[in-house]
Write a structure and sequence with these properties.
Chain lengths: 251, 246
């Protein structure tokens, strides 16, 4: 589904990704872990097409298409969802209006009929219920006045409505209390655990992986994947720390 | 004023940024008088949406305890001028919300003089301007508080959004205060759309023009918030925005 080969990217002229390769197949859940500054968020933003993240080498192919050639909205229409570590507040823009326009823009991009108002509200209500979010919150401006946990749950509601093929979730677990962590984890499973879909979880901690069990765990260090393994690798990291595990690889 | 029949020049502060050639075809501008009687309430909305140059000058007097709500959408004229002289009596309340949307080489301006002549009057002005290409948008706004007009509460919020670096926004908020007990708040900012917000909207599938339109709609809606006919004004603004963003 997603094939990244030798990807190199710069942010503000500073090389961050230095030859990253990764392949994700349908039905798989991958976790990328790594210390601060390893390039985890840069990977998410580069794949999402954020301005300022300049690809200097390598490739990323998404369902046969050159992902790096597409505009951010085209990547979304192709089935990519980027969950933000810090969801952006947009004063004055209603969450439901934005989400409906976004969903219909994607459908239009794929040659599908737009959702009617009624269809959309039913869908949004169902996904909000899944994430235990009050529909009244979604009538408010996008992320404005939401707590950290509410922002992350609202991201998952968006993911549920937009129904992507691949979700790249950047530290969805940061800023969550124990209950919200469980709710988000269950939301990810219910929305994305499917033989035709895949997830790339970017995280610092093992705790989200208790709820969303990965098939593969990768360690990112200094802009490259230095070690890959199964879910047990995340447990080892939690016990021994990044430094020990990363150094063992280098040795 | 004795010189109302003489065509202004660049030296006249109130016409400093005007399209003088277009102004000449409209000169002299006949003032339109509006009188709001003591204790009564009224509202007016003005939409300048034709292409032809247009200039309006409203002279509004609010008697004791009168309330007036004025909303203006200037979206279309190659040259559009909206001038306003308001005089507030004791305890009067004046609300002005305006949006100017311009593209190409259009020149839109709002020039206001709001005078608190007596005690305890309140006024609020909110002006939102969106400019693309080589458009010029101007707001010159003076709040005057006369001697003895204590208890005045005057607000001015002026923001302009440049969609292209080639557009020009002029803003001059002014305060002339001759009373002691006065609350006057003014804010003025010229900026560009928040890039982070735009990327967030686009990452969800909105094409760039739609993402911009959504953010600009919210920006403009601030000027029409609380207006009796806000839906109508917002719809007209949206239509113009869509044309500007292409």
């Amino acid at each position: 589904m997603l094939k990244i080969e030798n990807l190199q990217a710069k942010v503000a002229d500073k090389p961050i990704l230095k030859g990253l390769s990764l392949e994700i197949n349908p039905g798989e859940i991958h976790a990328i872990m790594g210390p601060n500054g390893a390039g985890k968020s840069t990977l998410g933003y580069t794949l999402g097409g954020r301005p300022g993240y300049k690809v200097t080498g390598g490739s990323a192919t998404f369902n046969g298409a050159d992902l790096l050639e597409l505009e951010p909205h085209e990547r979304a229409a192709a089935g990519l969802f980027l969950g933000f570590q810090y969801p952006v507040e947009i004063p004055g823009v209603s969450f439901v209006q934005f989400l409906r326009e976004a969903a219909n823009a994607q459908r239009k991009g794929r040659g599908e009929e737009p959702y009617s108002g009624g269809e959309f509200l039913k869908l949004a209500k169902e996904k909000a219920g899944l994430l235990k979010m009050d529909m009244d919150m979604l009538k408010r401006p996008v992320n404005v006045g939401f707590s950290g946990g509410e922002k992350k749950r609202a991201e998952m509601v968006q993911m549920g409505v937009l129904d992507p093929k691949l979700a790249i979730l950047d530290e969805t677990d940061s800023g969550l209390d124990i209950d919200a962590l469980r709710i988000c984890g269950e939301g990810i499973n219910s929305i994305m655990r499917h033989k035709d879909k895949a997830v790339l979880l970017i995280t610092h901690y093992q705790r989200l992986l208790d709820y969303v069990k990965p098939d593969y765990v990768h360690i990112l260090s200094a802009g490259r994947i230095v070690k890959s393994g199964g879910p047990e690798l995340a447990l080892r990291l939690e016990d021994e720390g990044y430094e020990a595990v990363v150094h063992e690889t280098a040795a | 004023m004795s010189d109302t029949l003489t065509l202004p020049t660049r030296r006249d502060e109130d016409y400093r940024y005007s399209d003088l050639a277009a102004l000449e075809t409209l000169w002299p501008i006949a003032p339109e008088e509006i009188h709001v009687a003591a204790g009564s309430e009224a509202s007016l909305q003005v939409v300048l949406d034709g292409e032809a140059p247009v200039a309006r000058h409203l002279v509004i007097t609010l008697e004791k305890g009168a309330k007036y709500d004025l909303r203006v959408l200037s979206a279309g004229p190659v040259y559009g001028r909206f001038a306003l002289d308001v005089r507030l009596g004791e305890g009067a309340d004046f609300t002005f919300g305006a949006a100017q949307l311009a593209t190409g080489s259009e020149n839109l301006e709002i020039v206001t003089k709001v005078v608190h002549a007596e005690e305890n009057a309140t006024s609020a002005q909110i002006v939102r301007t969106v400019l693309s290409e080589k458009a010029v948008g101007t707001y010159l706004g003076c709040i005057g508080v006369e001697r003895g007009a204590d208890g005045t509460d005057a607000e001015q919020s002026v923001r302009a959004m440049l969609l292209d670096r080639t557009a020009t926004a002029n803003a001059k908020p002014e305060l002339e205060i001759f009373a002691d007990d006065v609350k006057a708040a003014h804010g003025c900012a010229v900026g560009e759309l928040d890039a982070e917000g735009l990327f967030y909207l686009m990452s969800r599938g909105l094409p760039p023009a739609d993402a911009k339109r959504l953010m600009l709609q919210a920006f403009i809606a601030e000027a029409f918030s609380g207006a009796p006919e806000s839906d109508e004004l917002n719809a007209a603004a949206q239509a113009r925005l869509e044309a500007i963003l292409g």
